[in-house]
Write a structure and sequence with these properties.
Elements lengths: L2 E6 L5 H11 L2 E6 L2 E6 L1 H10 L5 E10 L3 H10 L11 E9 L7 H20 L4 E2 L6 E8 L2 E7 L21 H10 L8 E3 L6 H10 L21 H13 L8 E5 L2 H13 L6 E5 L12 E5 L9 H18 L3 E7 L4 H5 L5 E7 L2 E10 L3 H6 L1
Parallel strand pairs: 5-6, 5-7, 9-10, 9-12, 10-11, 12-13
Antiparallel strand pairs: 1-3, 1-4, 2-3, 4-8, 7-8, 13-15, 14-15
Bound molecules: S-adenosylmethionine.
The site of S-adenosylmethionine has 18 residues, from helix 6.
């Protein structure tokens, strides 16, 4: 049976997510705000959860209705056949988002109303009710209200899909895996040219690039998806999808180079690279960017330098101007993509970007800028 699904993502990644969906075989895709709608059968839903690099979660909308007050919201939520999806022995949670809806200005209250409707339906029909578990529920329900239109969905992913299962450490400021994968795709990296992250931190960009180059499904190591808990979970179908993904992994000769000034984060990165089975492709070094010399063959730099949390204004300006100088001196033949929330960081870098994108990293607005470093750039920029 073909259903409509909605894959959610970050602002700015809608285009690459739609491309991924089409490549995976989705028909009838449509870009929305921070999301892409698509159609597919149950097998495709399993595939999408396993393979999509730029999706945060995939929702299965169960209905949309106009609701003008609490009573109408409750009635709509109760009209959905919840018993078809899960049983009273399972736990659930509700997340609600409300936009431009004066009748429902409190999303916590919306979640409570829908919870009441779900619980009442189970009690009326089964005589017992499922419990709410806000931390680790079996089933997650999503409520979205825009003006007076309410959509209620069941979440097929469970925990956010950025939790790939290769990260073992809790470093303070890692890039979200979905954002890192999106940056690699937005950069148009061809999976073959050398890729360098000179401020690699815990290695998110390197690992996401390696998985992409080796055609390894980003969530192949995840133990649990939300759809495992649905009544219609087809274990055989899922096993087939998982085995197909394993079978289409391939070796790659691509070189991924990561450096960072901190020995501790390089240790974390080494763990992540090993967990993701990418040791053959990744070279790591403890090194200051200032002392790093890239291979002369050319390639791509994708990086996320420090952004002022630990550095004061002057240090930030100095660092970004050193980045600009080094790129000019040593990176001829490379294309560099730099993401940062430092305001107007391009001014300190002092090179002309050929592309400027806006992305968000953990809620911080960032610029993602492209620099093409031709041989002779230094002379041109100096004039
Ligand atoms: C924003 S974090 C990068 C996070 C990374 N993208 C991740 O996913 O974990 C910036 C990194 O730059 C490193 N760093 C700071 N100054 C440096 C320098 N001069 N040379 C090399 N690395 C530096 C820090 O140790 C930190 O790990």
């Amino acid at each position: 049976m073909i259903n409509e699904y909605v894959a959610k993502t970050f602002h700015g990644l809608e285009g690459v997510l739609e491309e991924e969906l089409k490549e995976l075989g989705a028909t009838r895709t449509k870009q929305l705000k921070r999301a892409v709608a698509f159609e597919g059968d149950l097998e495709f839903l399993y595939k999408a959860n396993l393979h999509l690099r730029t999706a945060l979660r995939i929702l299965h909308p169960l209905g949309s209705e106009l609701v003008r007050n609490q009573k109408e919201l409750y009635n709509f939520a109760k009209s959905i056949n919840w018993l078809r999806w899960f049983s009273p022995e399972q736990t659930f949670s509700i997340s609600a988002n409300v936009f431009n809806a004066p009748a429902f200005n409190n999303s916590a209250f919306v979640a409570l109303k829908v919870k009441d409707a779900v619980v009442d339906q189970f009690r009326d029909i089964k005589g017992k009710r499922p419990s709410v578990d806000k931390e680790n529920p079996d089933v997650r329900i999503d409520v979205h209200i825009y003006k007076d239109k309410c959509t209620i969905s069941i979440d097929s992913s469970g925990e956010s899909l950025h939790r790939r299962g290769y990260r073992s450490s809790g470093h303070r400021a890692p890039l979200n895996e979905v954002l890192a994968a999106g940056m690699i795709m937005l950069a148009g990296w061809d999976k073959k040219e050398t890729l360098i992250d000179p401020f690699c931190g815990t290695g998110t960009i390197l690992v996401e690039a390696g998985l992409y180059a080796c055609n390894i499904a980003p969530n192949i190591k995840r133990k649990v998806f939300g759809f495992f808990y649905w009544k219609n979970f087809d274990e055989k179908l899922w096993e087939g999808v998982w085995l197909d993904a394993r079978g289409s992994e391939r070796r790659s000769d691509v070189m991924l180079i990561g450096t960072d000034v901190s020995p501790k984060v390089i240790d974390y990165t080494r763990d992540h690279v090993t967990n993701a089975k990418l040791d053959d492709n990744v070279r790591l070094m403890v090194k200051k960017f200032e002392h790093m010399v890239p291979p002369t063959s050319g390639g791509m730099v994708i990086t996320n330098p420090p952004y002022g949390e630990r550095l004061d204004r002057v240090e930030v300006e100095e660092l970004y101007s050193v980045i600009g100088d080094k790129l000019k001196q040593d990176y001829a033949g490379y294309t560099a993509w730099i993401i940062s929330s430092v305001e107007k960081f391009n001014k300190y870098i002092g090179l002309r970007p050929s592309k400027k994108l806006v992305l968000f990293n953990g809620g911080l607005e960032c610029r993602y800028l492209k620099y093409e470093l031709y041989k002779g750039t230094r002379e041109v920029e100096k004039k």
